[in-house]
Amino acid sequence: MSNTFNADKMENQDSLDLEKIKRRFLEEFRSGKPTFGKDGALAPLLKHFLEAALEAEMDLHLGSEERGKGNRRNGKVRKQVRTSDGTIEVESSRDRSSGFDPQIIRKRETVLAENLEPRILGMYGLGMSLRDISSHLKEMYGMDISHDTLAALTEKIVPQVKEWQARPLDALYCVVWLDAVHYKVRQEGRVVSRAVYNILGIDRHGHKELLGVYVSESEGATFWLSVLTDLQQRGVRDVLIACIDNLRGFAEAINSVFPQTEVQSCIVHQIRNSLKYVASKDQKEFLKDLKPVYRAESLELAELRLLELEEKWGKKYPKVLESWQRNWEKLSTYFKYSEQIRKLIYTTNAIEGFHRQVRKVTKTKGAFPSDMALLKLIYLSHQNISKKWVMPLSNWSQTAQQLAIWFGDRMQLDLK
Q: Compositional bias of type Basic residues: which residue ranges (predicted)?
């Protein structure tokens, strides 16, 4: 193989004006123009190299055994190959038995540069449509990549998504936020709503991790139960604190799978739901009276302020105050902890912040063609967002020590 390749290489060098190529390369490199594209300075070199390598592979393929079967070269075939800097045309030999499977450019492979796929997936993960990506590649790299080719490239991540969804998880998560966000998906010619269940956790070292993403037709405690069971099957044995919205039956679903978990309902959700049933002329004053309840320094003081709130507003808005009393056990969990932990758990802001970042990517999509298309984009968005999750939460060492005091052996510190 090496002798053939060297011979072809010498022949190729003789047919190329290397000095002219060098000059053109320097000009294009300095101006930022593509150097490997169809008209790039290095395109002839790349073309000759690839064709010589393909011929060398064919020589190796047509060894004595193949020739003994009567197999030999059978003309040439041309194909367009896309590189990271443009498209070039490559010519290679065929064999009579059609058994030749080159490695440098595989059969039916039309994209040469391995780094092109991550670029495409990166743009897709930033919310660009396939049409936009195609236009961008045409403008920047002189490549004409069809919608079908791009769609096929994005389909390659489906196994990655499924593998990520089924990956093993840690045995312990200190804090977990659970929330759903809704999207539109096309199904059998009509647009339907889908609830995407996201679980964001903090591991024992203080690092954020998206534990899972699940798609369902609607949000409900029953589906959350299946989500929690899946987390358990993937290795989660304990969750110290779970932060949720006020969905009925949600806390019970959590405790049926993780019976020791402390559940904190989101104060902000409760406030929003309350204001729906308070007249607009009373909202400002009601909020002023409500703030001392959830901002109280202790549970006892918060309960006293809640009684005062009920005395003033209970007759006018009985259902609102009944809701606070009914959910008080879940709403008041955070009072037992220090200010540092309180700020972490009294709302679901952490996961809502994640949702906002994903929405920046998905907002241009009217309706997704399928559930998997929705999952793919959320997965790729998460890949970009999680690049910033390399450091533990601020002051985590102090928080971890406080959690270790509260939860004892359930929260083991790495102390030597």
A: 70-81
Q: What is the pLDDT of residue 4?
A: 41
- Decide which of 63 and 168 is more confident: 168
- Given a cut of 90, is residue 361 above it in pLDDT? no
Upper half-sphere CA count for residue 365 (Cβ side, 13 Å): 26
Nearest one of 256, 180, 255 to 216, comparing CA atoms? 180
Average pLDDT over residues 247-258: 92
pLDDT at 142: 55
CA dihedral of 292, 298, 304, 308, whole degrees rounded to 10: 0
Q: How confident is the model at residue 5 (pLDDT cuts 50, 70, 90)?
A: very low
Residue 2: pLDDT band with limits 50, 70, 90 = very low
Cα–Cα distance, 148 to 151 (Å, whole number): 5
The predicted model gives 242-247 an average pLDDT of 90
pTM for the structure as a whole = 0.69
Q: Identity (one letter) of the amino acid at 307?
A: L
If one counts every other C-beta atom within 10 angstroms of the C-beta of residue 33, the result is: 16
Q: For residue 154, give both structure tokens.
A: 């994005």
CA dihedral 140, 128, 189, 213 (to 10 degrees): 140
Query: Six-digit token pair at 20?
Result: 């002219």
Determine the Cα–Cα distance for residues 157 and 376; give it in Å rounded to an integer: 7
Report DSSP letters for 261-326, one per residue.
Answer: -EEEE-HHHHHHHHHTTS-HHHHHHHHHHHHHHHT-SSHHHHHHHHHHHHHHHTTTSHHHHHHHHH
φ and ψ at residue 111, rounded to 5 degrees: -115, 115
What one-character-per-residue DSSP string does 362-408 give?
HTT-SSBSSHHHHHHHHHHHHHHHGGGTTSPPTTHHHHHHHHHHHHG
The average pLDDT across 327-342 equals: 94
Question: How many CB atoms lie under 10 A from the CB of residue 159?
Answer: 9
Residue found by looking up tokens 């949000």 in the block: 219
Length of the chain, in residues: 416
Q: Which of 243, 236, 285, 291 is nearest to 258 (CA)?
A: 236
d(CA 164, CA 268): 31
